[in-house]
Design a protein that fits this description.
There is one protein chain. It is built from 14 helices and 9 strands. The chain is an alpha+beta fold. It folds into 2 domains: 258 residues, no CATH class; 122 residues, Roll (CBS-domain). A hairpin with a 2-residue loop joins strand 5 and strand 6. Helix 6 packs antiparallel against helix 7. The protein is elongated and about 80 Å long. The two termini are 18 Å apart. The relative contact order is 0.08.
Length: 397
């Protein structure tokens, strides 16, 4: 759902951390809001440089907290048989990418609960640390009390960060899929009914209901209605409605993804792979492929074989950046992707896993290989064609 892979920025405990470009938008808005609203109100005597520096630090610390929230999901999930290799931070927070559904409702429950609990613990810890550094405070968050004015930059940052993390934890506990609370709801219903699909459908419907509530609240705010906790206003209303729209799409998509995975779970790759392929040799001139094979065959990728063994794959995107002169001189072996660098699957691999591999590697085809021989290619359109022919009764409307 939602974000793509983004830019990889590091790895923690074997889990890759990616940052989506949309994060820059909310990061800038958060920094701007703190530096022009909350922190100047708390500290009217601070210099602009100190206000901006503290605001920037607070924004960085907030997304570090979101990362900790998602990392807790990933680590607990991994301990209970759920593969999570990547975390993506994006506009609406973070996402731990699960490569498989939880093996049991208990695993789902534990993985879902740990994120909000981590955020609540961080919130309490940050406030406690702020009090430890500054001493007991009587704080009016809407005013500019003397107690707030006496705070230094670090206690100020922590005193803002604590309640924000607590609100993040509480918001995620709302029982609407795919929020953590919705996953808790799904786990409970899964345990009660023994039916993962039914539990997912009900949790997704709850998520859509919550999403519609956010959209309605946002529209009311835009129209000038003052809503408790949210107030009123054009920008706030649009933002709340946008979050609701995003959650509605995520709830629907999450259910559809489960149904598609279940439909493909017991379908082997060899049942949907394409076997009628034009294959080329490593020494084939590249100009021959371009001039004589691409248009007549309609293939986007050509298996490369030598003495009956699969040695690589020549995809059309391998030709990008090559000038006409280079195409005239080069051979297939010069630009192909060697077999050892490709993600391949055996013929018995579940089509659901192949579909996940296509998404993770951002490729259009996966070679099906056995004993060094290429049996065929599974392409995205092959999966979609199979679903259109055999999976319509399973797919939601």
């Amino acid at each position: 759902m939602g974000p793509g892979d983004g830019v990889r920025v590091g790895r923690i405990a074997g889990i890759a951390v990616h940052v989506d470009w949309s994060l820059l938008v909310i990061f800038a808005l958060l920094t701007l809001g703190l530096s022009t609203g909350i922190f100047p109100a708390w500290h009217p005597d601070w210099s602009p440089a100190l206000v901006w520096a503290t605001s920037l630090g607070a924004a960085v610390a907030f997304f570090a907290s979101v990362l900790a929230h998602e990392l807790s999901h990933a680590l607990v999930g991994r301990a209970h048989g759920i593969s999570v290799r990547r975390i993506t931070l994006f506009m609406f927070g973070g996402l731990a990418h699960m490569e498989n559904e939880p093996p049991s409702w208990r695993a789902e429950l534990l993985m879902a609960l740990v994120g909000p609990l981590a955020s609540l613990a961080l919130g309490a810890g940050f406030v406690a640390l702020a009090i430890l550094l500054a001493g007991p405070l009587e704080v009016d968050f809407g005013g500019t009390s003397e107690a707030l004015r006496r705070l230094g930059p670090l206690p100020t940052l922590l005193l803002w960060l604590g309640p924000v993390n607590a609100m993040l934890g509480l918001f995620n506990l709302v029982p609407g899929f795919p929020l953590d609370g919705g996953r808790v709801l799904r786990a409970v219903m899964w345990g009660a009914t023994g039916n993962l699909r039914r539990a997912t459908r009900l949790a997704s419907q709850a998520g859509q209901g919550f999403a519609f509530l956010l959209v309605g609240t946002g529209v009311a705010m835009v129209l000038g209605v003052r809503v408790p906790l949210f107030g009123s206003g054009l920008l706030g209303g649009i933002w709340l409605a946008f979050i609701g729209w995003f959650l509605d799409n995520a709830a629907v998509l999450s259910y559809r993804q489960l149904v598609v995975r279940e439909s493909l779970e017991h379908v082997p790759a060899e049942a949907i792979m394409r076997t009628q392929l034009v294959r080329v040799a490593p020494q084939t001139p590249l100009r021959t492929v371009v001039d004589e094979l691409v248009l007549p065959t309609g293939q986007r990728a050509f298996p490369v074989e030598e003495n009956g063994r699969f040695v690589g794959l020549l995809a059309l995107r391998d030709l990008h950046g090559l000038g006409r002169a280079a195409r005239q001189r080069a051979r297939v072996a010069d630009v192909m992707t060697p077999a050892e660098r490709l993600a391949t699957v055996p013929p018995s691999e579940a089509a659901a896993n192949v579909l996940g591999l296509l998404g993770r590697r951002e490729v259009n085809q996966v070679p099906v290989v056995e004993g060094g021989r290429l049996l065929g290619l599974v392409r995205r359109e092959d999966v979609l064609r199979w679903l259109s022919l055999h999976g319509n009764d399973a797919l939601p409307a």
